[in-house]
Amino acid sequence: MDAESSPRHGLTRRRALAGGALAASGLSSGCVETIERFFGGSSREQVSLEIVTVPADADARLTAIARTLVDRLEAVGIATDFLLTPTDQLRKKVLTNRDFDVYIGTMAADRDPDYLRTTFQSSYSNGVGWQNPFGFTDQGSDSLLDAQRYQSGQQRRETIQDALTAITGEQPIVPLLSDTAIAAVRRNRFEGWDRVRARDPLWLLALDPAPGRSPEGRLRMTAVEKILTERLNPLLPTFSEFDALTAYLYDPLGRYYDGQIRPWLAQSWSIDESAREIRLELHPDLTWHDGEALTAADVQFTYRFLNDTAMGTGETRHPAPRFRRQSSLVDAVDVLDDQTVRISVDAAPAVARTVLTAPLLPEHVWESRTDVVDESTGLTQAVTWDNPDPVGAGTLAFESRTVEESLVLTRNSDHPMNREGTALFERFGPLAFDSLRFRVVPSDLAGLSLLTDGDVDATVPKLGNDVISNVRNESAVDLVTSPSRTVYHVGFNARRRPLQNPGFRRAIARLFDKGDIVESTFDGHADPLTTPVTDAEWIPSSLAWNGSDPEVPFAGSGGEFDVERAKQYFEDAGFQYTNDGRLVY
After folding, report:
1. Within 13 Å, how many C-alpha atoms sit on residue 29's CB side?
2. What InterPro entries does the record point to (predicted)?
3. What is the sign of the dihedral through the CA atoms of 26, 28, 32 and 33?
4. Pair 358, 323: CB distance under 8 Å
């Protein structure tokens, strides 16, 4: 049965009212114009949308997807404005100002599906960053996303699956695919490139020196994105799954490895499920990169600050948008002594542990960054400053940068991973290199040229599939590939007409042949998605990819787009066509 004719989508109150109004008027597409002419001119407005994405030099695949969408929207009678904008401007347009109709972009899906709560729950739609930038509202999914954070095991899994069913039914975004993380590497100086997913924070930390080499050399990498050298603020909302700041400079209390979230800057912890409390001990003798002691007071400050970056100086709270999910779960943080903290968490243990993945911030650096710089968005200086000399407690410390050219980090010898006798040293240490240099290059091909010449050791794991053949022709260079949690998607601003209509969003979703995008645009280096969650264990069987999207199958077959079928979906959503083929309100 087609999803649109199924009982769940066949008759909602909204659609019944729309259908009743149309039936009562008796207007076909032909007599729309007849009646308008009789009453003295057209009062019906053509549906128009602005489509925005990044230019091809930032991500040619996003640009290609967007161009296809524009062509198909115009084919079904929708007027379009197509805008290509640099990544930083797209971030501001979508994640800060909410000034968009439809964008095509990426977001990093978290390992734990609680990230859906702040991304889609209606109570977060007035925030910034990835706090429901879509303006999506749905009471059913709201309730389910609230409930899951107090659950565990199979009960939680079923609640998440119900929430995904509700969300995909409304299509606030169109999840297209998750790409394959691709990096090109040389193995003559370092080994272990395949031990961890390439965009995982532990990817480079799991390396070893190649046989016969000592862990004293510099790891040299290329990157295409200049922002890596420009803005070193870990609170900045990002589109990218690979983030050097929170991977190497700013460390959390816990990281995900060996199948679960485990202690990192924390030495140990225990969770009291009945009291909903986490009691944790820090590693002894922790320091910030500037030599100041890292104590339990910094842990307390971090969660207070993430919950309100104005620290009570504003009329309302100003949470750090990037880590809103973690801070929203914390009720209180109590310092028991310099190394011991008690965190009261409003969640069951399965979700409570995710609180510990937020990066710690030094109070003596961030406490002065509380001024509100934009009341309309609620942004404070903490979220907007460039942080040119970052001070964290990560495995690597900031050494230098040249804007638009390079970023250099050096080994933090005081980190538990780099100190003998710690569990982290036994599991991961010591670090395989004493410094890490990211070199900005104009393109993937430029990075590969440096790699084949032996001037760098690896690219960041964001290579486009169009350069893979170049890598395979180089005997000294290997490809490293792994699944990713980067979700390529189409985002709708449901605050705006006609995008507040779920039927209209579903009709747009049917313009995408996801399987063809994977094969033709990504050369097979991607997996089609039907939900914004990438891990199969959370996805209900009814939404499993089966060669097409079972919720919003493509309006076509055999790779061919069926314009007339697509038009019918827009008419089913309550819209009409003029004689000259324009879709009108």
Report:
1. 17
2. SBP_5, SBP_5_dom
3. negative
4. yes
Cβ count near 114 (within 10 Å): 22
Residue 217, burial from CB neighbour count under 10 angstroms (0-12, 13-18, 19+): middle
Phi and psi angles of residue 331, each rounded to the nearest 5 degrees, phi first: -90, -40
Q: How confident is the model at residue 27 (pLDDT cuts 50, 70, 90)?
A: very low
Of 141, 195, 208, 204, nearest to 169 by C-alpha is: 141
Residue with tokens 């996801």: 514
Interval 6-26: pLDDT, tens: 333 333 333 333 344 334 333
Q: Residue 358 corresponds to which tokens in the numbers above?
A: 């937020």
Is residue 260 helix, strand or coil?
A: strand
- In angstroms, the Cα distances linking 354 to 128, 148, 398, 474 are 21, 14, 26, 42
Give the DSSP letter of residue 276: T
Location of structure tokens 């997996």: 527
Confidence of residue 32 (pLDDT cuts 50, 70, 90): low
Structure tokens at 444: 């993937």
From 335, 323, 259, 250, select the one nearest 297 (Cα to Cα): 335
| Model confidence pLDDT, tens digit, residues 185-217 | 999 999 999 999 999 999 999 999 999 888 779
CA-closest candidate to residue 253, choices 285, 289, 280, 284: 280
CB-based contact 511:104 (threshold 8 Å): no
Q: In which element (H, E) is residue 284 found?
A: none
Residue 125 has pLDDT above 80, yes or no: yes
Tokens of 415: 């980190």
**Is the pLDDT assigned to residue 101 strictly greater than 90?**
yes
CA dihedral over 58, 59, 64, 66, signed as positive or negative: negative
The residues of the chain that CATH labels 3.90.76.10 are 251-370
Q: Which amino acid is at 334?
A: D
Residue type, 190: F
Give the whole-angstrom CA distance, residue 329 versus residue 339.
22
Domain 251-370 has CATH 3.90.76.10: yes
